[in-house]
Specification:
There is one protein chain. The chain has helices at residues 30-42, 56-67, 100-110, 123-126, 131-139, 172-180, 199-211, 245-257, 277-283, 320-327, 349-360, 391-404, 422-431; strands spanning 10-13, 21-24, 46-50, 71-75, 78-82, 92-95, 117-120, 143-145, 151-154, 161-165, 188-193, 217-220, 224-229, 238-240, 262-266, 289-292, 296-300, 309-312, 334-337, 363-366, 370-374, 383-385, 407-410. The protein has a four-stranded mixed β-sheet with strand order 2-15-17-16, covered by helices on one side. Helices cover 31% and strands 23% of the residues.
Length: 436
């Protein structure tokens, strides 16, 4: 695999020939880091996050949190936050680039601020949906200007209460409301109509609130999910952010598609509540072997990948792209559905992934909510994949390249959004010493 040099515009991914046993520790969870950062910055006192993710999204959120008065200090493997005790200070304008989750979190935080908070992002984020969130905040009597970025929000007469939430385009709207709920007078109750979009990520938000001492509850009813967050003063916390299952899935997939290859995902547990952990567990159902060891989850390729059949990936839509790459080597066609949120991500992920797989030699058909993939038989002509500035497309197609070969990823630096050291860690798979 080629090393990046100044001016290199593509990363080549040759066939992986050195099969063995590797140990890989991926960075901290992006989803957990963003949620914990937000709660730490809104809380009172000093909170410490051990092994957080340091990436484009988290660095931009940190800068935005500083703009509203939070103290933020990065040190090696640690992030220290001094919170604003639920009272954002300063009139501020913040820029979150292409970060969907941090943008929506900051919009919600604006509803706690006496001074106007303006949230903006890049051209892609300006076209991604925001209006549902501003409607919810307006229903709580916050002042909101704009239904697409840039948006300006201030507290107004904002208070808690009960909201009936229809099926949303993104779970991030609901998570954003939940993260500010402890500081709304009287707390907040959400009655979310089923099916709840990406419900696994909402459950993760509730779990993170619990970690910070908030007695939030989530109850399933026949037609809706009820989430109750009581008014609570958050105080200092020290938590360790577990490795990111969303990043680990790429190396689990590499092990799965190569006979005899083992990768131990250090620090991860098979029963982790991170939504994308389900994608790793699924690899054990289509041919790989999974083992929980003292070091972490060990994934070993058996030489056979079975079809995923009809796979509902609504609980782990981001990781579905990596599974689509694995499906290219299956023993039959696969259909991956439940992908309604993917067209409004960093790219139209269904369209870009379908085109990438077709270029690699797969038979692919897609709609706005599913992909149908026929594995390729023998295709090894050189191809260049343009991930359209989408980190997850780039990393998923790199997985495919480790077995197909002759794959180059254009704009490889786009992985910095969630996994800045991805290419360095991928080289460890090619060059690293076997597990002792």
């Amino acid at each position: 695999m080629s090393k990046k040099k100044s001016g290199l515009i593509a990363e080549s991914v040759p066939p992986l020939k050195r099969i063995g046993s590797r140990v890989m520790r991926v960075p901290g969870s992006k989803s957990l880091t963003l949620r914990a950062m937000t709660l730490g910055a809104l809380g009172a006192g000093r909170s410490v996050l051990q092994t957080p993710l340091e990436s484009d999204d988290t660095l931009l959120l940190a800068k935005a949190l500083q703009a509203i008065g939070a103290g933020v200090k990065w040190t090696p493997n640690k992030l220290v936050l001094h919170g604003v005790d639920g009272k954002p200070r300063n009139r501020a304008s913040v820029y979150l680039g292409g970060g969907g989750t941090p943008s929506r979190m900051m919009i919600a935080i604006g509803a706690l601020s006496e001074e106007p908070l303006t949230v903006d992002g890049d051209s892609r984020m300006r076209n991604r949906p925001i209006g549902e969130l501003t409607e919810f905040l307006t229903s709580l009597h916050a002042n909101c200007e704009g239904d697409s970025l840039p948006v300006t929000v201030s507290r107004g007469e904002c208070a808690g209460g009960t909201l009936d939430i229809p099926v949303t385009k993104s779970s991030q709207f609901i998570s954003a409301l939940l993260l500010i709920a402890p500081y709304l007078k009287g707390g907040l109750t959400l009655r979310c109509q089923k099916p709840v979009t990406s419900s696994t990520y909402i459950a993760l938000t509730v779990e993170t609130l619990n970690t910070f001492g908030v007695s939030a509850t989530l109850e399933n009813h026949e037609d809706y999910v009820e989430i109750v967050v009581p008014e609570t003063r958050l105080t200092h916390r020290e938590i360790e952010v577990e490795p990111d299952a969303s990043s680990a899935v790429y190396f689990a997939a590499i092990a799965a598609i190569h006979k005899g290859m083992s990768v131990t995902l250090e620090g991860l547990c098979l029963d982790s509540s991170q939504p994308d952990m389900e994608a790793i567990r699924l690899l054990g159902k289509v041919g790989a072997t999974l083992e929980q060891t003292d070091k972490g989850v060990k994934v070993t390729g058996t030489g056979t990948i079975q079809s995923f059949g009809d796979l509902d990936a609504s609980g782990f839509p981001d990781a579905s792209l990596c599974l689509a790459a694995v499906a290219a080597f299956a023993d039959g066609p696969s259909r991956i559905y439940g992908l309604e949120t993917l067209p409004i991500k960093e790219s139209d992920r269904i369209e870009v992934m379908a085109k990438s797989l077709a270029l690699a030699g797969c038979g692919v058909a897609s709609s706005d909510s599913d992909m149908r993939i026929s594995p390729f038989v023998d295709s090894s002509s050189p191809i260049a994949i343009d991930p359209m500035n989408d980190h997850r497309i780039a990393m998923s197609m790199a997985v495919l390249g480790t077995k197909r070969g002759n794959v180059s990823i254009v704009d490889p630096s786009c992985v910095s959004k969630s996994y800045p050291t991805f290419w360095k860690d991928l080289r460890k798979i090619y060059e690293g010493k076997d597990e002792s």
